[in-house]
Each structure stands twice: as structure tokens, then as C-alpha cells.
């Protein structure tokens, strides 16, 4: 009878998409390995957190996150539009909850983000005068960086200041404050947050031209005698086109500048994208999903294997350079939470993380763990 039952379980598991051995591990009742424990001597392992997760509203997430992660970044709640919606109006409640959550669960928080052209409050978008923008800029950085100094581990001080060709993005900050705004942002953050690590964070900065722009930014901050502790390569890539050689070169180039290197928003899309290139520019949407959502009910083996191999290759590379890398953060705990279900096309079914929609570890999770064996 037992033998028949085992045969039945084996048959049912082989009918789904994951390779048999990985699927069997995944189905077992025993606890899964821990990412943070597995890589504890290598780098921090982080995740983005949304409001429900910070408030522990979902029991499965509340249980899984502290077991798997020792670092976290608020996905949205510390962006200017949310935390600073009016000149003299700040909403600290969620960020304070995040700090308490981090303290309770021994999770290091990277606050995200002080100066970003996107998700600005309406009152900032309508500013036309350099003096007014500088006032916002100074108040915003000083207020937030000082409030959370010693409570968060680090800040993404400036986010996504570069165009793809390596020139500075023509943001409201560049246009009204001039190109020194980046150094000034770090200077203000350094003054307000002497106990907090300070980072520059961007996507596609592993690519040569944009990387050169990021190198210039870091050199300029350092040349001004201002502190920058690290650089975050976001890591929004397509599973089938991970630029491993450029990533490796970036690790070498950035670490040669004497800053920590981090992968700060890692996710691997498995869905077709209309531009045929990596893009994390949230303003670049491409309509709704009609006819463009190929895997609404699960990934075929072939695609699951590409995703798994992609994560495996990345973690092998990360381990090779673990002396230069301080943190790997996934942009979302599970597939259901990922922004990539709505970008660049709304309403699709993407599979970019290590955990499925029920928070169950995917084959990619076990492949990542296995890179340590
Ligand atoms: O909170 C509102 C909700 O009240 C409203 O009903 C709903 C309607 O659309 O929108 C909600 O806000 C959304 C927010 O996510 C929270 O879900 C915004 O529209 C949406 O634009 C926002 O998207 C976030 C995006 O940044 C823009 O801020 C994504 O969740 C977040 O994953 C993404 O993260 C960025 C990093 O910060 C920087 N690097 C790129 C990365 C991916 O775009």
C-alpha cells in the first residue's frame, strides 16, 4: 500500500514542470534550507518588502522572510511621494514600522531612496524655481537621513541618475540644480547620517557606457571629499540574456574604486519584452497584456530550466567575487509580488523570483543553494 502511495506521489510530481529531484525536495515536509544561513560567510541576502509584508499581514510571508533574509529594502514606502507628500508633511508611520520589523527580525534595512526622479510628490513635480527645489532637496535629505540614522543600515542616496549612454539623466534635479546635485545629495546625507552607509543605485550599470557614467559619479563624490560606501547594480535582467561578462567586469571596476558592490534589486524576467533589451524605467510601459501573457498557468520545463540556470550562473559568479560583494537583494519575496507582473505590460504572469505565488521554493532556489556545495 505504501509503495503504491509513493508511486502515486512520484507520478503526480513528475506531471508538473520542475525537474524530478528538485520537485521532490520542494514537495517534502522538511524545512527548506535558508538563503541567509547558506551565504552567511559570503554576503547579506535581502528582499524587497511591501506594506503587507512589513505589517506581517500574510502569515506565510511573515514566517518565511526572517528565515531566509537578513537584509531588506522597502519596495515603495520610503519613496518621496509616499513618505513626504507635502512641503511640511511627512508620513513616517510605515517607515517606522519597517525599522521595528528589521530590529525584531535582525534584518538590516537599506532605505530606498532619497533622490530619484520617479515617484516624486506632486508638489515637487510642479516646482520651477531652483531655489524651491533646493529647499525641498535639503529638507528631504536632512529630515529623513537624520531621523533614520543608526536605525537603518544604509541609504540608496541617489537612484537612477544615468541615461543608458552614461550621461546624466535629464531629471528635474539635473535641470534645476545642475550636475553637482549628486555630490550635494551625498554631502547632505553624510552630515545627517554619520552612522549609515551611503550608496549610489542604478539599473544596467553593468553595461559599459552606463558603467562608465557610474564610475564617474563615484569618482566625483570621492574627489569632493564626500563619503560613498557602495554601489548597487540593480539586476533587472532577462533570464535568457544575463550579461555575465559585463557583470563580472563591473564587479571588478566598481570594487577597484574602493566601494562595496551590491546587487540590489535582483529579478529575472521570463516573459517577452517589447524592446528586446533590459529596461527598468518604470515610465516605459507598453499597454495591457492581451495576447502577450504566455504562461498564465505555470512555466514549461524549458523556461523553468532557463530561469534556474540563470540564477545558478549568477550565484556562481557572485561567490567567485564574494570578497567584493556585500549584499544580494531580490526584488520581491515571491513571484506574485513582483513588479514584473505589470511591467512593461500590465496584468501578466511572470516568474522572476526564487519563490512561487504560494511562497514555495522553486527549482531556482535549490540551484542557488547548491552553488555553495
Ligand atoms: O499605492 C498605489 C495604490 O494606492 C493605487 O491604487 C495603485 C494603482 O495603480 O497604485 C499604487 O501604487 C503603485 C506602487 O507601485 C505600489 O504598488 C504605483 O502605481 C506603482 O507605480 C508602483 O510601482 C513601483 C515602481 O518602482 C515605481 O515606484 C513598483 O512596485 C516597484 O517595484 C518599483 O521599484 C523600482 C525601484 O524602486 C527602483 N528601480 C526599479 C524598480 C522597478 O521599477
Explain what this protein looks like in three dimensions:
The longest helix is centred in the C-terminal third of the chain and has 20 residues, at 301-320. The model is unreliable at 1-28 (pLDDT under 50). Strands 1-2-3-4-5-6-8-9 form an eight-stranded parallel beta barrel, surrounded by five helices. The chain has 373 residues and is an alpha/beta fold. The protein has 15 helices and nine strands. Helix 9 (130-147) packs parallel to helix 11 (181-192) and helix 14 (301-320) runs parallel beside helix 15. Bound molecules: ligand G3I.
Biggest beta sheet summary: 8 strands, parallel, barrel
Given helix and strand content, the structural type is alpha/beta
Helix proportion range: 40-55%
How many H/I helices? 15
Mean pLDDT comes to 91
Sheet with the most strands: spatial strand order: 1-2-3-4-5-6-8-9
Which molecules are bound in this entry? ligand G3I
Compute the separation of the termini in Å: 36 Å
Contiguous runs where pLDDT drops below 50 for at least 5 residues: 1-28
Give the CA-based shape.
globular
E-strand count = 9
Which helices and strands appear, and what pairs or packs with what?
Blueprint (H helix, E strand, L loop, with lengths): L1 H14 L4 H8 L7 H4 L5 E6 L1 H4 L4 H10 L2 E4 L5 H4 L9 H13 L2 E9 L5 H4 L4 H18 L6 E6 L12 H6 L3 H12 L4 E6 L5 H16 L6 E4 L2 E3 L5 H12 L4 E10 L31 H20 L4 E6 L32 H8 L3
Parallel strand pairs: 1-2, 1-9, 2-3, 3-4, 4-5, 5-6, 6-8, 7-8, 8-9
Helix pairs in contact: 9-11, 14-15
The structure holds ligand G3I.
Amino acid at each position: 500500500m505504501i509503495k503504491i502511495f509513493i508511486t502515486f506521489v512520484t507520478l503526480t510530481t513528475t506531471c508538473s514542470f520542475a525537474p524530478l529531484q528538485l520537485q521532490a525536495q520542494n514537495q517534502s515536509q522538511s524545512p527548506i534550507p535558508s538563503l541567509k544561513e547558506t551565504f552567511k560567510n559570503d554576503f547579506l541576502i535581502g528582499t524587497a518588502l511591501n506594506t503587507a509584508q512589513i505589517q506581517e499581514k500574510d502569515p506565510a510571508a511573515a514566517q518565511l522572510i526572517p528565515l531566509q533574509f537578513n537584509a531588506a529594502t522597502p519596495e515603495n514606502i520610503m519613496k518621496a511621494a509616499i513618505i513626504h507628500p507635502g512641503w511640511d508633511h511627512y508620513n513616517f508611520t510605515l517607515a517606522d514600522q519597517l525599522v521595528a520589523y528589521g530590529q525584531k527580525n535582525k534584518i538590516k534595512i537599506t532605505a530606498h531612496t532619497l533622490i530619484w526622479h520617479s515617484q516624486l510628490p506632486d508638489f515637487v513635480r510642479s516646482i520651477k524655481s531652483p531655489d524651491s527645489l533646493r529647499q525641498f532637496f535639503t529638507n528631504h535629505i536632512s529630515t529623513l537621513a537624520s531621523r533614520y540614522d543608526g536605525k537603518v543600515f544604509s541609504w540608496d542616496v541617489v537612484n537612477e541618475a544615468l541615461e543608458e549612454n552614461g550621461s546624466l539623466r535629464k531629471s528635474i534635479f539635473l535641470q534645476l540644480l545642475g550636475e553637482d546635485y549628486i555630490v550635494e545629495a551625498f554631502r547632505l546625507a553624510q552630515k545627517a547620517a554619520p552612522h549609515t552607509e551611503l550608496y549610489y543605485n542604478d539599473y544596467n550599470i553593468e553595461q559599459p557606457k552606463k558603467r562608465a557614467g557610474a564610475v564617474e559619479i563615484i569618482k566625483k563624490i570621492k574627489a569632493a571629499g564626500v563619503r560613498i560606501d557602495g554601489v548597487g547594480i540593480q539586476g533587472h535582467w532577462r533570464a535568457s540574456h544575463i550579461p555575465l561578462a559585463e557583470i563580472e567586469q563591473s564587479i571588478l571596476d566598481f570594487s577597484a574604486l574602493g566601494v562595496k558592490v551590491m546587487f540590489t534589486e535582483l529579478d529575472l524576467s521570463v516573459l517577452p519584452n517589447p524592446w528586446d533589451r533590459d529596461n527598468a524605467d518604470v515610465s516605459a510601459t507598453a499597454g495591457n497584456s492581451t495576447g502577450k501573457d504566455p504562461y498564465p498557468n505555470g512555466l514549461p520545463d524549458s523556461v523553468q530550466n532557463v530561469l534556474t540556470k540563470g540564477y545558478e550562473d549568477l550565484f556562481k559568479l557572485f561567490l567567485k567575487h564574494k570578497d567584493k560583494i556585500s549584499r544580494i537583494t531580490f526584488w520581491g519575496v515571491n513571484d506574485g509580488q513582483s513588479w514584473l507582473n505589470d511591467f512593461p505590460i500590465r496584468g501578466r504572469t511572470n516568474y522572476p523570483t526564487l519563490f512561487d505565488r504560494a511562497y514555495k521554493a522553486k527549482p531556482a532556489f535549490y540551484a542557488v543553494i547548491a552553488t555553495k556545495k
